[in-house]
Amino acid sequence: MRFASEFRDPVLARALLAAVAGKAEAIGATRERPVHIMEICGGHTHSIFRYGLDKLVHEGIEFVHGPGCPVCVLPMARVDECVAIAERPEVIFATFGDAMRVPGHRKSLMQARADGADIRMVYSPLDALELARRNPDREVVFFALGFETTTPSTALAILQAAREGLGNFSVFCNHITVPEPIRALLEDPDMRLDGFIGPGHVSMVIGLRPYDFIARDFGKPLVVAGFEPTDLLQALLMVLTQIAEGRAAIENQYARVVPENGNPVSLAAIAEVYERRPSFEWRGLGEIESSGLRIRPAYAAFDAEAKFGIGYAAARRTVPEIEGCACGQVMTGRLKPTQCPQYGRGCTPESPLGALMVSSEGACAAYWQYAGARTAAA
Asked: The domain 4-69+180-252: what is its CATH number?
């Protein structure tokens, strides 16, 4: 690969679209019985809408948006816990920017900052480490969230803090894993999914083998894909080819980036710093066994939950979603964003009710950004 434009070639895209249409017709896909393909990753959702792939593919193919947006799947109770930590006078709370406006039950982190909390936007956990070095009299807490993509960087930051003895640095760990919610969706008898487009960035870390159960236990194909339009169309064609041939396998369209066995350095850092939680709460899916990570006892000095007695280290409560907000149903593919009664009415990018309208990977944000008023009026 030399240039991204090579993966946006309209001639190649038209050829792939024709091949996709041929496979869809061979399968017998129709508007009445479309083939349901779930793109797990929120980045893929945005690419699909940015390039209009949802409109260009055969009418018998329907994309279903999955739970692959880490900000979106965070329940409101965890946002409330972030605010509670951030409002402590001794704390500097460091967070990625796309988490700032996610609504909690009381307020968002943005609103807490407006009310006086010392909340700083950072681009990596290393920025938070630097804050701890420069402010030895303050407790610096990094809001660690994300799937396996961002988990290694947080682990490496904790290891560095341990080497330096930075006792005023800790992590509020909300790292989660991709395979477990996919299993939860496949075990739901109301879900009708024919195949998956697998996440590229997550797979760059974990490889292909963690997805084997999807083909082995549920008979569904999954193809890991890149993020350019021809990446997605080729991956879609590979999924449809498996369906047409009556087989199910885990395949890798994104081989230029994703190694079959993942990144050994990243996996080693994850294994050293984290262990599985017995369960973790997901927006729209509830508690899912072994789907979240927590900091191992050996690094408890850098665990904000233990340090401040909050979150799973304390008595937790489930906070209900805002009435009329269908974030959970949209995030799990049960509804399209435009089917939420609040979309474009009570919930807009300027005044969001749910995380899916805020996050750069949220399905509602994708609909709004690339279709806007047209979808709001639909």
From this structure: 3.40.50.11750
